[in-house]
Design goal:
There is one protein chain. The chain has 147 residues and is α+β, with helices and mostly antiparallel strands. The protein is 40% helix and 29% strand. It folds into two domains: 1-39; 44-145, PH-domain like, CATH 2.30.29. Strands 1-2-3-4 form a four-stranded antiparallel β-sheet. It starts with a helix and ends with a helix.
Length: 147
């Protein structure tokens, strides 16, 4: 009996180590997935945030998001610790250009006053056109309200 126990104990030790390693890997994966979910939530529900594709550079982990409010346009870039949010008034937008590639497009928002343009990289072409339309509609509604 003692010889059988000696032969089985290294095997059961190996299975314990393997099981523990698999369990730790699963826990690490779930934690990473949870962090990605928390940081990639839409920053705005109303209006809907347009999100850049993860398939483009600089958008792999934390894709940039853009929302068009009636009085401003907000660009939101999440990070591991915090986020960066830029906004510009619709009155300060001079023009909106869509630089389209085969699949993805960049939106360039030129401002009045000489500041550098705001560039939003990695949007799907359909989303880039929708963003340009939303910005134009926000500018038009703002002009109608101002006497």
């Amino acid at each position: 009996m003692s010889e059988e126990n000696k032969n089985k104990s290294p095997r059961s030790l190996g299975w314990r180590i393997l099981r523990t390693a698999v369990l730790l890997a699963l826990i690490a994966f779930l934690l990473f997935a949870g962090v990605l979910y928390l940081f990639n939530r839409p920053f705005s529900e109303n209006p809907e945030a347009i999100r850049a594709s993860r398939l483009t550079t600089s958008n792999r982990l934390f894709p940039m998001q853009v929302a068009v409010f009636p009085e401003r346009i907000a660009r939101y870039k999440p990070r591991f610790f915090g986020h960066t949010e830029d906004s510009i008034s619709t009155d300060q937008i001079a023009s909106v250009k869509v630089q389209a590639g085969v699949v993805f497009a960049d939106v360039v928002i030129d401002t009045t006053g000489g500041s550098p343009p705001i560039v939003i990289h990695g949007l799907w072409k359909k989303d880039a056109e929708r963003l340009r339309h939303l910005i134009g509609a926000a500018q038009e509604s703002r002009r109608k309200r101002t006497p």
